[in-house]
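[[Sequence with tokens]]
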Amino acid sequence: MQLRAPAILIAVRPHGETAVIARLLTEEYGLVAGYVAGGRGRNLRPVVIPGNLVAVDLRAKSDSQLPFAKLELLESRGPWLSEPLPAAAIQWVTALTATALPERNPYPSLYNALKALLEAICQAPSARGWAPALLTYETLLLRELGYGGAKPEAEGLADILAAMEKLADPLQRYLLADRFGDTMAAREQLIERLRKMV
């Protein structure tokens, strides 16, 4: 296995003393994982942040071996992680994507939607600018995996929050059932912060 592609880093797990296992979403190859040597070192720590857009070079000798990954930063989400609302949104969408998607199945529409959503979270002047895109992404994820229907009609932050409340059950039941960890906690934290704006 060998690939080089732009990717969205969606999850990082420490491995050994200084390395990490990175999970990345690519447009052409879907969700892939790789061993990043020195991922917790001073040079790579700013690169291995969930939400970052990176160029990944993935190489493995066989399909059964975890590939080695080299990452090059293309776009950082680091500056927005000090802001509570954008940080909570980035944490939720990356955790949801990492938990829900199967590996090595391409979902080009989800890749492009997540890339646009992360861009909106970082560029919009407030959550009112990116909350509709977040609702659209959750709905698209359900639909792409065979569980969803039409996007709920919502205008204004109060309507979006109400629509997000309705999506909580299908997300929990279909995408996150029997998964290790409490991914929904990140969503609940985000919704609590959004409610303060209403």
In short: Helices lie at 84-100, 108-123, 127-144, 157-175, 184-195. The chain has a mean pLDDT of 93. The beta strands are 2-15, 19-26, 30-36, 53-59, 68-75. The longest strand covers residues 2-15.
